[in-house]
# Entry
Amino acid sequence: MELVAEREKVAEGETVMKIKKPVIKPKPQVVYEFDISNINVFYGEAQILKDINMKIEPRSITALIGPSGCGKSTFLRMLNRMNDTIDGFSFNGTVLHKGSNIYDKKTQVEDLRKKVGMVFQKPNPFPKSIYENVIYGLRLNGVRNKSVLDEAVEKALKQAALWNEVKDDLKKSALALSGGQQQRLCIARTIAVEPEVILMDEPASALDPISTAKIEELVFDLQQKYTFIVVTHNMHQASRISQKTAFFHMGDLIEYGDTETIFTKPSQKLTENYITGRFG
# Structure
């Protein structure tokens, strides 16, 4: 580090060196999409998640893998407080979303769910038109201007790679769409309210291979704008779409790291046994 010195005359005519100390700027604090610390989740007496610690970066794709009943979906629902509606749910620990504790008493759950949207395992369009499905959340938020709604519909359907397929049939019932189209419509409905995070609970498990490929491509394309956290039982899918993978087993987070490392050089034998199909 270069020190800058300048000469300064003093009253006696002597010359001394005046040293300017370099300014050391503090490193900017990393703000994670989610910073999860020491989480334990219970349904009644049963402990579902055990001392979970995880940091999730913004605009990343994280896959959650593990056998059925290991706590993946509970972990996912914890991130937008959907577990709050389950009888007997309790937890301790800290879940920060961009530095704010989402379980703080002052947290407005409705506002949280605008920021952290969710797409479920089976497509769940409402028995309404395609148009009304997309703007459902906007209407709940009080948006009434038709030009604003029209623009939001087109934008969301384009982002969901569905616009060209339905643009001439926006008044058509959403229930008339194919399964893959319905799932992309649900994604459009989620992103219409412009969230920051999209949670996905096995979004392609009920779809055919072609529709599954479209969903995966869509997630990959939308990563530039959203953070994705995806529960999947499909090991190939997890390895294709994610940058980070978390392996859960019986409520424990066994291993969490770069997807390539998890699938090629896992540090835990249990992880290796699961991804190679020895159990699950």
